[in-house]
Amino acid sequence: MTPAPQANHELDSLIDEITVDCYDEYEQLTAFQTAFENDATLPCPGTVIGEHVEVLSVYGEDDHHELIATVQRDGRQYDVALLDIDNINADADTSRLIAAYRRWLRALSHLHLNSYVRRWVGFRWCGRESFSCWCFRRGEGMMGVVAEAESDVSEQVDPPSAVRERAEAFTAEVLAEAMGHPVQIVNGGLYVRGLLEEGARKSIEPIVARLGGDADYQSMQQFLADSPWDPVRVIKATVERVAPAIDVEAWVLDDTGFPKDGKHSPGVKRQYSGTLGKIGNCQVGVSLHAVGSKGTVPLGWALYLPEEWCNDVERRRKAKIPAEIVFQTKPVLGVDLAVRASRWRVRKAPVLGDSAYGDNTELRDRLHNEGLQYVLSVSPETTVFSAGTNFISPEHRTGPGRRSIHPRPDREPESLSTLIARRGEKQLKTVTFRDGPNGMYLKSRFMFVRVRAAHHWRAHDGRWGKTEEIPPREEWLIAEWPKGKPQPTDYWISNLPASTKPGRLARLARLRWKIELDYRQLKGQLGLDHYEGRSWLGWYHHTALVTAAHGFMTLERLRPP
Q1: Residue 168 burial (CB < 10 Å; 0-12/13-18/19+)?
Q2: Looking at residues 451-459, what average pLDDT do you find?
Q3: pLDDT at 433
Q4: How confident is the model at residue 524 (pLDDT cuts 50, 70, 90)?
Q5: How many CA atoms lie within 13 A of 546 on its CB side?
Q6: Domain coordinates of the chain in residue numbers?
Q7: Rounded to whole angstroms, how far apart are CA atoms 476 and 376?
């Protein structure tokens, strides 16, 4: 495991100078790219796994989670991770810039973030031929695990055969929890191997082609689309092996788009997708992820089925959608995932989510009733009763007419934005907390107020709606109001205990960004959105096997050198 970098004030100052005003790791990476473009003197010589190269340029792309160098060897150009280049003979300024970048990236490694610190030779890029892959063609073929280096010494690489053996053992172990037939376990192991191996597409046809004679297309297609094995049991087996290793801090609920060209994949329609950033033809999958200081692991997947699909008998038949599947909103799908995971042997943690989930009061109520904590983003229009509200029981009276026995508030509820504005900036607290992929201590201004949600109060007739909790439970309202902003930028509601410290509330409120790293790795490296089949069960089988591959990668990355 990579230890935390020791203090180096010169490099730390340079990192701060480069990444100033950057909100997250992607902006910081872009800032380093700009610094190399403006300040680095290239070309210069270096070595990659003992081979002499000329470093021509440094660039970054959205699909890459670190800076890439274009290098030249024997007249041919290759793309390779900048961190893989040793013995770079550059001028003083360029050397300092490289050292600062390596120090910044090692800080990410210390936090064990999947998309950055897990480095596989078999997962290199193919815009041009990967130099690392070229070097390792002399090896056995599948993949090599590259351990993080502490300095400029060459990195040590496990033999590809050793990595394959560990992958096969892990896969067989988790698949055996769901599959009773040897052919299922063999096909499942081959499919996970295909997901782990290098390749632009991770759908059945290219996977079978890459596996050569080891896999049969028809058998693999039947295994994925129709074979009666339970994908939930594969995910559960993976989670119960991976979660204890990553120091789980929170569960993050979100959804992601699966772009499609046709109209026959189950659930596909023109709908909004955050992945596309617009309305497009896609499926939408709801997912829950455990995130921790050392990594992440998906806890479950649910395919959103729009109402027109639910009511279309013919399309349901062709997609083999079970009769018991009915329309459910994304929040309902999400809370079902959380409740299911809470029954497993995995540490419970506060559920995080954006306002699409936090504004759903039924979701919050169900999480609370199931004994699950949450820190959920909500809209500023959300109404609450302030801490000073008294709930007074009505006086007993006789005579005709309907009488309420429930206590009533002595004031009307107010929106979150109104409440925070009324309290004013003098009530803000500056909180220091760890955030972001490099684990830096950040400061921001927050307000923490105890409130009671007002969604069950019918103000128009002065009565409560259908609820057993009267008065409503007391909860935290968290508002972030950065310095220089005219008003708060974010609001959260949380049922964490009243004794919870502000630093933990702030960190949990800001922790949801980690799921974006998960989606990038699951899609960019493991082909989460590459499934091309038209089977309802096939989609769930594919996402379960992607979860198993992701789990192996996480445990492999955490192996001590």
Answers
A1: middle
A2: 81
A3: 74
A4: confident
A5: 28
A6: 9-146, 374-511
A7: 10
Q: What are phi and psi of 419, to 5 degrees?
A: -65, -45
CB 142 within 8 A of CB 193: yes
Helix (H, G, I), strand (E, B), or coil: what is residue 277?
coil
* Two tokens, residue 173: 């172990």
The answer to whether the beta carbons of residues 432 and 444 sit under 8 Å apart is no
Give the least confident one: 59-68, 147-156, 257-266: 147-156
In the structure, how many helices (H) and strands (E) does the chain have? 19, 22
Tokens representing 294 are 């050392």
pLDDT reported for residue 434:
66
Dihedral angle sign, alpha carbons of residues 367, 368, 372, 376: positive
The DSSP line for 489-518 is SEEEEE-S-TT--HHHHHHHHTGGGHHHHH
Helix (H) or strand (E) holding 108: helix 92-111
Global pTM reads 0.73
How far is residue 369's CA from residue 507's CA, in Å, rounded to a whole number? 24
Instruction: Measure the CA–CA gap between 3 and 517, rounded to whole angstroms.
Output: 22
pLDDT at 103: 84
Closest CA to 466 of 520, 406, 423: 406
Give me the pLDDT at residue 152, please.
32
Strand (E) or helix (H) holding 537: helix 536-558
Give the least confident one: 2-16, 134-148, 334-348: 134-148
Residue position matching structure tokens 């760890």: 434
**What is the CB-side half-sphere exposure of residue 192 using CA atoms within 13 A?**
30
The 3-state DSSP class for residue 446 equals strand
Calculate ∠ Cα 167-168-171, nearest 5°.
85
Mean pLDDT of the chain: 83
CA 502 to CA 216: how far, in whole Å?
Answer: 56
